[in-house]
Design brief:
Length: 156
C-alpha cells in the first residue's frame, strides 16, 4: 500500500512523524530515501518525539549509528551515506539491530537495498513546489494495515 502526505511546513512534517510513530512497533525498520537536504533527519526527530524519546536527536552521519532508549521503544538511527562497504555495517551489528526489539530508522537506505529486510517500511521524501514543502510517500509491507485517516491513498 502506498500513502502520501504533503507537508506545507515543518509543523506538518512533525505531525507526519508523530503519526508514523504511533503505528510503529518493536522490530520495525523504516527506510528513508531522499535527496540531500530533503529532511530525513528532521523526520527522524519527529518520529523520535512521537515515540517519547527525550534525548536530543542528532544525525549519525559520521558515527553511522545513534541509539536512544528513553521512548516507548528503543530507537536506532542509522545514516549509511558515508558507509563505503556494507561490511562496515555488519561490524557494528547492523543485522542485530534490524531484527532486534526496537525501531530502526535508516537514512539513505537506497544505498544499501540488499541489506533492507523484506518487511521494511519505506518513506520516500521529495522536495515540493515551494521551498518549505515536502512530499512523503509511505510504502507499507503487504502484511501491515495502518490507520492513517489524514493520509490519502496514492493511485498506482
Amino acid at each position: 500500500m502506498k500513502l502520501q502526505w504533503i507537508a506545507q511546513a515543518e509543523q506538518e512534517t512533525q505531525r507526519f512523524g508523530r503519526l508514523l510513530a504511533e503505528q510503529l512497533r518493536s522490530g520495525d525498520v523504516v527506510a528513508l530515501i531522499g535527496d540531500l537536504g530533503t529532511g530525513k533527519t528532521a523526520l527522524t526527530k519527529a518520529v523520535a518525539a512521537g515515540l517519547g524519546v527525550s534525548e536530543m536527536i542528532t544525525s549519525p552521519t559520521f558515527t553511522i549509528l545513534c541509539e536512544y532508549h528513553s521512548g516507548r521503544l528503543p530507537l536506532y538511527h542509522f545514516d549509511v551515506y558515508r558507509t563505503g562497504d556494507p561490511d562496515e555495517l555488519f561490524e557494528i551489528g547492523f543485522e542485530e539491530y534490524l531484527f532486534g526489539d526496537g525501531v530502526c530508522i535508516v537514512e539513505w537506505a537506497d544505498l544499501v537495498p540488499d541489506l533492507m529486510p523484506s518487511n521494511c517500511i519505506f518513506v520516500r521524501i521529495a522536495y515540493g513546489q515551494e521551498e518549505s514543502q515536502r512530499k512523503y510517500e509511505l510504502m507499507l509491507p503487504q502484511d501491515r494495515a495502518w490507520s492513517f485517516d489524514e493520509l490519502q491513498p496514492q493511485e498506482k
